[in-house]
Write a structure and sequence with these properties.
mainly alpha
């Protein structure tokens, strides 16, 4: 039984990471502007919420199976940053990523009751949470050095980085004052 739980721990961690990265990428694309207007199809928001919820559910499965697999994971190492007896940094990254992701997902439903700036600041935690989860998986995962895992993670991170870079460069462009170009005699 412990071996089955160990396999479930590995699989649920990989699936949770993929879903988390997909949710972040989808959120960045959904909230972006194309040609000055926001893209707002209803199914896109449903997809984003679903991906985030499933990522949290698979993370919960990852935690429960890691505890039950008898691989040295204690309740303290699952819920308290810095409490793991070994690989403390890797466990701490996972715990902090879990809390940030849970906070992001659970503040989605009461969004209308929160001030927009507060909600947005909390929701931005999903980006460092995803980065911490990637580092946690790389440092602690038994599959982390395999070519398939490395390639899949590189593709998933690239799919998140592309809309993130577009959003950042778009923000910079929108906040930069317009520079008046001198009238050219050649036009």
């Amino acid at each position: 039984m412990a071996e089955l739980l160990w396999f479930l721990t590995r699989a649920s961690g990989i699936v949770a990471l993929a879903l988390m990265l997909a949710a972040v990428a989808d959120g960045l694309i959904f909230s972006g502007r194309e040609g000055g207007r926001r893209l707002r199809p209803a199914w896109w928001m449903d997809l984003h919420r679903g991906l985030g919820g499933y990522a949290l559910a698979f993370t919960g499965l990852h935690l429960v199976t890691a505890f039950g697999a008898r691989i040295g994971v204690t309740l303290a190492s699952v819920f308290v940053p810095g409490a793991a007896p070994y690989s403390t940094t890797a466990y701490t990254l996972g715990v902090v990523a879990f809390y940030a992701m849970a906070l992001t997902v659970f503040t989605t439903w009461p969004k209308r009751r929160m001030r927009r700036k507060v909600w947005h600041a909390v929701h931005l935690l999903s980006i460092p949470a995803a980065a911490l989860a990637v580092l946690h998986g790389y440092q602690l995962g038994t599959d982390a050095r395999t070519p398939g895992y490395l390639a899949g993670t590189a593709v998933a991170v690239g799919l998140v980085m592309y809309p993130l870079v577009l959003r950042i460069t778009g923000l910079v462009r929108r906040r930069r004052p317009e520079i008046a170009l001198p009238h050219s005699a050649y036009t």
